[in-house]
């Protein structure tokens, strides 16, 4: 599958879908608090996509085995693809919510970290460094740069802070399909990999572990956890390569911040 360069019309649709994804993340954040279950958050996301935004949650029934819920909720040592359940969140938890809305044949995909009550300084540092890692990757995006430049930038921030980068999961192209080429890894060497061109749209979504990078996948076929059970964090934005640099398509409408 080749990398798809989006037309101006497709780029405009992807801007709209990116805004919808960011709006959904703004919305759900108001409900993250001690005592709520991730199943309850999942139902709120589902209803918001369908009844308010007029779209559909792309994760629902995606893949093999089919993903059973409408968003991913990854708590504490869960790296990614956490399946919402009936366990209440508790004070001190950290949570990634990863949503993808499908509408009019296009996809909008983004994730954020949320804090439950009062968290430890160590957990907050991991969240902050992971966001810095993502932004470092985003900031090198421009025509003529390479995917290796993105991975290198993400990796330097994380490893210089004493953390590790998950290598088995990565960002991806997105558009009419949920997952398109290219794969966007969050480690690597500058000057390697495909060269960025205007009209490319992909996600940058580093998964950063407090301990070692090693992981295991649970028997449900989806949930990915740190092998040493130390915390993991992730942020995700959709990025468009413009003629002069980049445009983040999933900035929060509420705060205006990435």
Would you mind describing this structure in some detail?
By secondary structure, this protein is an alpha+beta fold. It has a single domain, classed as Alpha-Beta Complex (Creatine Amidinohydrolase), CATH 3.90.230. It has four helices and 15 strands. The strands form five sheets. Strands 1, 2, 4 and 5 form a four-stranded antiparallel sheet that branches. It has a three-stranded antiparallel sheet with strand order 3-12-11, with no helix packed on it. A hairpin with a 2-residue loop joins β4 (94-103) and β5 (106-115). The chain starts with 7 loop residues before the first helix and ends in a 10-residue tail after the last strand. The model has no long low-confidence stretch (mean pLDDT 98).
Counting helices, strands and paired strands, the structural category is: alpha+beta
SS elements, strand count: 15
Listing every helix as H and every strand as E from the N terminus to the C terminus, the arrangement reads HHEEEEEHHEEEEEEEEEE
User: Looking at CATH, which topology would you report?
Assistant: Creatine Amidinohydrolase
Q: Determine the CATH superfamily.
A: Creatinase/methionine aminopeptidase superfamily
What's the domain count? Answer: 1
CATH architectural grouping: Alpha-Beta Complex
Q: Mind telling me the CATH class?
A: Alpha Beta
Number of helices: 4
Quick check: average pLDDT?
A: 98
Separation, N- and C-terminal Cα atoms: 30 Å
Uncertain regions spanning at least 5 consecutive residues: none
Strand content: 15-25%
Radius of gyration: 17 Å
| Subunit arrangement of the protein | single chain
What would the principal axes of the Cα set say about the shape? globular
How helix-rich are the residues, as a percent range? 25-40%
Largest sheet: 4 strands, antiparallel
Binding site for a divalent metal cation 2: 109, 172, 205, 236
Subunit structure: Monomer.
Binding site for a divalent metal cation 1: 98, 109, 236
GO molecular function: initiator methionyl aminopeptidase activity; metal ion binding; metalloaminopeptidase activity
């Amino acid at each position: 599958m080749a990398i798809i360069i989006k037309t101006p019309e497709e780029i405009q649709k992807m801007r709209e879908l990116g805004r919808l994804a960011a709006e959904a993340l703004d919305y759900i954040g108001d409900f993250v608090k001690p005592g709520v279950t991730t199943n309850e958050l999942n139902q709120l996301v589902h209803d918001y996509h369908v009844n308010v935004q007029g779209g559909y949650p792309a994760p629902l029934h995606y893949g093999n085995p089919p993903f059973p819920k409408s968003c991913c909720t990854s708590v504490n040592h869960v790296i990614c693809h956490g399946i919402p359940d009936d366990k209440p969140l508790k004070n001190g938890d950290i949570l990634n919510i990863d949503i993808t809305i499908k509408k009019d044949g296009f996809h909008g995909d983004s994730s954020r970290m949320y804090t439950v009550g009062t968290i430890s300084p160590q957990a907050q540092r991991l969240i902050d460094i992971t966001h810095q890692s993502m932004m470092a990757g985003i900031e090198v995006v421009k025509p003529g740069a390479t995917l290796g430049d993105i991975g290198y930038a993400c990796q330097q921030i994380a490893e210089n802070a004493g953390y590790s980068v998950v290598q088995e999961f990565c960002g991806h192209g997105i558009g009419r399909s949920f997952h398109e080429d290219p794969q966007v890894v969050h480690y690597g060497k500058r000057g390697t990999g495909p060269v960025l061109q205007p009209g490319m749209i992909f996600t940058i979504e580093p998964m950063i572990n407090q301990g070692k990078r090693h992981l295991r996948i649970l028997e449900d076929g989806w949930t990915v956890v740190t092998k040493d059970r130390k915390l993991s964090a992730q942020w995700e934005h959709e990025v468009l390569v413009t003629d002069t640099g980049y445009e983040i398509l999933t900035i929060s409408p509420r705060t205006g911040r990435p």
